[in-house]
Design goal:
Alpha-Beta Plaits, 24% helix, globular, disordered N terminus
Length: 111
Amino acid sequence: MKIEETGSDIVGQDNESLYTGKVEIDLSLLADKDIMAKLYRYLSRTPDIKSSRTVASSDNGVIVTVMLDKPLTLVETLSSEIPEVHVIGEPASEKEKKQKVRRISITRRGS
């Protein structure tokens, strides 16, 4: 697979599979300590993830914002790291494209 930078923060032949730059991981109303621990363990041991910020609210659940230095197959990797959840990469909306942010949703399997 040939990987090349495009005009946005989306890279690669399949523009939806590789993530770089700012990514928001939306855990919705999922408040499972084991799943959160697995997510943070992965984020902390991955050298290409330079920073993270977590915001939690009773209305929106938990959103973890990360900055990726290099392209990563984040959806596939999170799916294998946390097998008890569905990880869905959402297509970038026009607003997200302007803000150069991508979004990933995580829900518990069977929900």
